[in-house]
Design brief:
Distance between the termini of chain B: 70 Å
Oligomer: heterodimer
Largest sheet of chain B: none
Radius of gyration of chain B: 24 Å
CATH class of the largest domain in chain B: Mainly Alpha
Strand content of chain A: 15-25%
Number of strands of chain B: 0
Structural class of chain B: mainly alpha
Number of domains of chain B: 2
Strand content of chain B: under 5%
Largest sheet of chain A: 7 strands, mixed, barrel
Number of domains of chain A: 3
Strand order of the largest sheet of chain A: 1-4-3-2-6-5-7
Number of strands of chain A: 7
Helix content of chain B: over 70%
């Protein structure tokens, strides 16, 4: 009797062990399936290659994008005997027909701060599509730091020009300040002349000879002042011309810089927009899922606080 | 529980955990989201003292809430519109909004909203000087203010206000003291109101130094809350207290300070 019970218990234990082992095996298979899906093992793909001068910024597993969509990933980065870098890319078969043999691979950053991706620049539609082991041309896109450096290098001479102009204007011994001083002096002399004319008018009873004499002096003075003005004005005009030339030169430099950057900026903006949109979508999804849904409660309408104080008519 | 069942239990718990991860929160429909957005904008505008903008936003929220018959939303919007209209000096409009809520036969609002509406109505009537009418609506508010009612200190303060208008300083002190006790840790706004009422009652009893102390304390709270009208009121109360003490110079200084406060 005892032996029978013992056997029965052994049988139970065996059955439970079997069930547990089956459960564990099932869970392991499920995890393996998830890993396979994540690693794209279940996706049919076409391997293509490109060659780069160095491996800077190129990593195994980095995304390959085509017009903003992920179409594959970098599978391998290896050094060739001739010291070039061979990059193997796996493209999803669903998108291969969109990429011609003359397409280019370009290494870009998706935003000012962010991960690098390989962007496939589409070739002409007429050319045959890429096939297994096709080789694409490779180029590096300008990243934010190189654009910033280029802009800084081009801005420096402009800032130098502006500093020179400013210091020239502020210099008390500079031409502009001197010209202004001359003008100031001239104004003072003219004021004196007008005063003399006034005095002349009020002393109408003085002798005619004396009047003539003073008038002559006054006219001489006016003549002298006009001569000073004649000399000063051309110099002032020359200086103004030079200043305008400097400003024009600065403006043309800025225009040139803007034109040079114009090719890169739309791509930057486009990629940044896509990144922001993706982040927003992810955040929205996360906010609606447990446990984050509890952290990001939707705002509810609230009653404003009722104020229980009524001021007296006369405090 | 045997040892072999424990891992199975762990697996089940794990599966349940993963299932929970996949759950998404029930979403509000687009119109309710829109109403909530308007309401949030209005709340922000109110907090920064931009009452006209807040009024417009609550009007828009009300339109949306009425369109989808969101009854709690309608009640909140109407109460807030009444409050803002009162702040902006449009007392008739505020009164009309409150009547709309209190006399609505078609929709059944939660009792807490009715209590808030009745309290607001009472304060509005008291502002017009109708003490009897204010008392009537305050009794209704008190009857509606039952479990978890947050209006207790407001109602007590309103009672203190009524007592002051009836020149009953003792009753005013009693109600304001109750309001101060219940609001000290919950509502700085009502705590400062209670202090102000107590200061007025002390002035009435010619206890000037105590009135001054209370007005000072109210001033500190009101400055923290950033409420210009209340700050002005506190300064005027201090001026009256100094005047009562015979310190005309200080009284003049405080009146000058009060005159420089301009609400914006």
């Amino acid at each position: 009797m005892k032996l029978s019970n013992y056997n029965q218990r052994l049988l139970n234990i065996e059955q439970r062990t079997k069930r547990f082992m089956l459960g564990a095996l099932g869970a392991m298979l499920f995890v393996l399936l998830l890993i396979a899906i994540k690693q794209d093992y279940l996706v049919r793909s076409t391997a293509i290659y490109f060659f780069a001068e160095n491996a800077q910024g190129l990593n195994k597993g980095m995304a390959v994008k085509f017009i903003g969509f992920k179409v594959g990933s970098v599978k391998d980065v290896s050094m060739e005997p001739n010291a070039t870098v061979r990059v193997k890319v796996a493209l999803d078969d669903d998108y291969v027909h969109l990429i011609g043999q003359d397409a280019k691979a370009r290494l870009i950053k998706e935003a000012l701060v962010g991960e690098s991706v390989v962007e496939i620049i589409p070739g002409s539609q007429q050319v045959q599509q890429v096939t297994q082991n096709s080789v694409l041309q490779f180029e590096r896109g300008q990243d934010a730091s190189s654009i910033a450096e280029s802009m800084a290098a081009q801005l420096q001479p402009i800032l130098k020009d502006i500093r020179q102009i400013t210091s020239s204007i502020n210099n008390p011994n500079g031409d502009i300040q001197q010209t202004l001083k001359n003008l100031n002096q001239l104004t003072g002399e003219l004021r004196e002349t007008v005063k003399q004319f006034t005095q002349l008018g009020t002393s109408g009873n003085q002798k005619l000879d004396s009047v003539h004499g003073k008038l002559d002096k006054a006219l001489d003075s006016v003549n002298a002042n006009l001569e000073v003005m004649d000399k000063a004005l051309p110099r002032l005009v020359d200086r103004a011309d030079a200043t305008l030339d400097n400003v024009q030169s600065a403006t043309s430099d800025i225009k040139r810089m803007a034109a040079e950057s114009a090719g890169e900026l739309p791509a930057f903006i486009h990629n940044s927009n896509a990144l922001v949109q993706d982040s927003q979508d992810m955040l929205e999804g996360a906010k609606q899922s447990w446990p984050f849904s509890g952290w990001f409660r939707k705002p509810e309408a609230q009653v404003l606080p009722v104020d229980g104080y009524v001021p007296p008519e006369k405090p | 529980m045997s040892r072999l069942q424990f891992p199975s239990l762990l697996v089940i718990v794990g599966v349940l955990f993963l299932t929970a991860c996949g759950q998404t929160a029930p979403a509000r429909n687009a119109r309710l989201e829109l109403a909530a957005d308007h309401s949030q904008s209005a709340q922000r505008a109110y907090n920064r003292g931009d009452y006209h903008v807040a009024l417009r936003q609550y009007e828009m929220a009300l339109q949306v809430d009425v369109a989808v018959e969101n009854i709690p939303g309608i009640a909140i919007d109407i109460l807030n519109l009444a409050r803002l209209s009162q702040i902006l000096g449009r007392h008739e409009v505020a009164d009309a909004y409150l009547d709309k809520l209190l006399q609505d036969d078609a929709l059944e609002y939660e009792i807490s909203y009715l209590a808030a509406a009745a309290t607001q109505k009472s304060l509005l009537i008291l502002q017009r000087g109708d003490v009897a009418g204010a008392r009537l609506w305050l009794e209704k508010a008190s009857a509606w203010c039952v479990a978890e009612c947050t209006l207790t200190s407001v109602i007590d303060n309103a009672r203190a206000g009524i007592a002051l208008r009836e020149k009953d300083a003792d009753q005013a002190l009693h109600w304001a003291d109750r309001a101060a006790s219940s609001s000290r840790n919950d509502s700085p706004l009502e705590y400062a109101n209670a202090l102000r009422y107590m200061s007025e009652a002390r002035l009435m009893r010619r206890e000037f130094s105590m009135a001054l102390r209370l007005a000072d304390e109210a001033l500190v709270v009101d400055k923290t809350l950033g409420l210009p009208a209340k700050i002005k009121q506190d300064l005027l109360l201090s001026a009256s207290a100094y005047e009562g003490q015979g310190d005309a110079e200080q009284a003049k200084r405080f009146r000058e300070r009060a005159s420089r406060i301009v609400a914006r």
